[in-house]
Write a structure and sequence with these properties.
By secondary structure, the chain is an alpha/beta fold. It has 11 helices and 9 strands. The structure holds adenosine-5'-triphosphate, 2-(4-methyl-thiazol-5-yl)-ethanol and magnesium ion.
Length: about 300
């Protein structure tokens, strides 16, 4: 080819490439803004409607979980006695069950409450804390999975253990896996259970077994505050309470919002103890502009 023509062809290819890259960037940016608008709308609905969230949760998490729900605008209630459930659970807007400090005495209440929630058409969320730590805990988690949770949210190790129903008794409540290493396990668990599965970590993963969404908000220091995972599970319940028909989107939005509150809290925190306080303050004060500018959700 004539060298001048060749140069022209090369230049044309270059321009087409840059145009494609720019339009991909515009598309990504548009998708990101759409997620921001959705997350803000759902948080606003929680603030306006103040859904009642019943939590049957571990002793460690009760305080942070209740304060997370309050600062997001929801109304937490930590009720777990079997005697109260028939009156209370059907009237709650969503239920959060967390097996962190599981004992035989509490398991019947967890199962009964989830059955009542399903019967009343209310969403419920399972947090399978340390699912692989013991046979008793794994059996309990598997039984609860059979009671049709709307969403299950765990860390990488918990979701991997649960999806294979295999024990790893060297693991406690902290994850030994990156969330991205649990994508296949999460998809398989979503397939077998029909639940939306969320895996927290540097990237929060959310899947219905087909679509996989990644939410990249948050700071690593959040792992150094006990029960941040438990608390974001309860926040997912609050988001489901106001947007039950879009469980995947509500879950991704709750994870991002909590992550954004962590990022903003980290701007002023000095360590885990002050981050705990500033995260709650930031969640309480979050506005639309901060969400739109900071949200980082995309398809994986
Ligand atoms: N490396 C990281 N970078 C950013 N955010 C993170 C990181 N690791 C965890 N997070 C965030 O911290 C929160 C807690 O997630 P984590 O995976 O630690 O839950 P967990 O192990 O169940 O915690 P816990 O059992 O103490 O409640 C989530 O909001 C998650 O997005
Ligand atoms: C530390 C701990 N132990 C059981 S539950 C819990 C809270 C974090 O999952
Ligand atoms: Mg946990």
């Amino acid at each position: 080819m004539n060298p001048i023509l060749e140069q022209c062809e090369l230049r044309k290819t270059e321009i087409t490439y840059h145009q494609a890259m720019n339009s991909k960037h515009d598309e990504d940016e548009q998708q990101r803004r759409q997620w921001g608008t959705r997350a803000w709308a759902t948080l606003s609905a929680v603030r306006t409607r103040s859904p009642l969230i019943q939590c049957i949760t571990n002793f460690v998490s009760m305080d942070l979980m209740a304060n997370t729900l309050l600062s997001a605008g929801a109304s937490p209630a930590m009720l777990h006695s079997v005697e109260e459930l028939p009156d209370f659970t059907p009237n709650a807007d969503a239920l959060c069950i967390n097996v962190g400090t599981l004992s035989p005495a509490w398991l019947p209440a967890m199962k009964f409450a989830s059955e009542l929630a399903v019967k009343a058409g209310k969403p419920w969320v399972l947090d399978p804390v340390a699912a692989g730590a013991s046979k008793f805990r794994m059996m309990a988690c598997l039984e609860l999975m059979n009671l049709k949770p709307t969403v299950v949210r765990g860390n990488g190790s918990e979701i991997i253990a649960l999806s294979k129903a295999s024990l790893d008794s060297s693991m406690g409540v902290d994850s030994g896996h990156e969330s991205v290493d649990a994508v296949e396990a999460a998809k398989s668990l979503a397939h077998s259970s029909g639940a939306i599965v969320a895996v927290s970590g540097a990237v929060d993963i959310v899947t219905d077994g087909k679509r996989v969404i990644g939410a990249r908000n948050g700071v690593a220091m959040m792992q150094k505050i006990t029960a941040t995972g438990c608390s974001v599970t309860a926040l997912i319940a609050a988001f489901l309470a106001v947007d039950q028909l879009h469980a995947l989107e509500a879950t991704a939005s709750a994870l991002s919002i909590f992550g954004i509150a962590g990022e903003m809290g980290m701007d002023v925190a000095k360590g885990p103890a002050s981050l705990r306080t500033h995260l709650i303050d930031s969640l309480y004060g979050l506005d639309e502009a901060a969400i739109i500018s900071r949200i980082r959700i995309s398809s994986l």
